[in-house]
Amino acid sequence: MSVKGTVLESYQFDVRDFSDRQIQVIKAACAAGKGNTELKRKLHLSIARQEHNRKKYFKKVTLERRKAYMKPVYDNLREKLHIPMSVWNFFGDARRRIDNFSQSLLPKSWSLYGQDTMEWPEIHIDEDAGHSPHVLAGMPANCVKLPGWERVKQAFLPRMYMEMYDPYNPTHTFNWDTLTLSTFILSCVVGVFHGAEYANRDLAKYKEHEGTVFYESRMMGQRVRDAVYARSLAKYAIRWGWRFGLLYAVTYGISQSMTIYRLEDKVGHYVAATGIATALYAWKSGPSGMMRFGIVGAILGIPLGICFATLGFNPRPLHYYSKVEPYATGPMSQEGMTLQERLLSTERTFETLFLLRTSHSPEINNEEFFRKFVGST
Known about the structure:
By secondary structure, the chain is mainly alpha-helical. It has 2 domains: 8-115 and 342-374, no CATH class; 134-326, no CATH class. The chain starts with 19 loop residues before the first helix and ends with a helix. The protein has helices at residues 20-31, 37-81, 85-105, 133-137, 148-156, 158-161, 170-208, 218-262, 267-281, 286-310, 315-329, 339-344, 347-357, 367-374.
């Protein structure tokens, strides 16, 4: 592959011509010390500037999609509560004034990378698209054509069951990543908070009887107290963390699986999920204990289902529609583009690839680079 008449000194790099994986490879090539170091420095600065501006545009798209998603939810809430339109508009205007005032306190759009010179497309959002079935399922749009059980398998085990699986596509891994990461983070937070409470209690008990203990130095006494606190914190953090993690993971997994299977969100999903979760939590109590805990959990799942399903305040589809889907299918993605379209659409791509070929780095100084990274989808 050769490029004739390419003026490298005046080329314009565009991050939208490459995928995220290719950008990482190009940045690694720019960091190499060999080759045309001056052009690599310019290219690295251009990538940093455009990535910064792309993040700002992405935040703007996320905000607009979040507003479009929540508008029918708020309208539905107003109708159910029979709130007069004048009162609703008064509080809405007050909230907008507070938001505008808080935005005015922030520094102006000054950036270390300079002004944004990239031409981004206008944001056009359909308010009804945020409540489509595939958004509730947290999967790509073509999932509605699949059988229910096949959707569930692809949602939580995409690497095994999803055709054309792409680990870098957030719409393919949304359900699995959300389940595992949220369970881990919330389990750690709840476990540490409960563990700290019990650790403070045990430390206070130890200090009550500490007067009969003699230490060689003040540092030794502080070390023993820290050990008492750390042991108690670790013990109770694990004890409460796995319990909350079990309840949360089972509730999330069952409710989201039923939503994916049926492509609709109902109160019964959360009633069944919380009932099964609390019954599993009380498995040591025997069948009668599991039955009692299951009934209590099912009752607690009713307000959760009303909030998430009936009123529409479900954070899962909101997060998917506002942050995950636009990144995977919007102007920041290359979905649907062929290899020839990516390589031949702009001359800037050829100029960048030619620049990389001038480097003496063994990772990119051969045709394998173009086949492996540029040809990846």
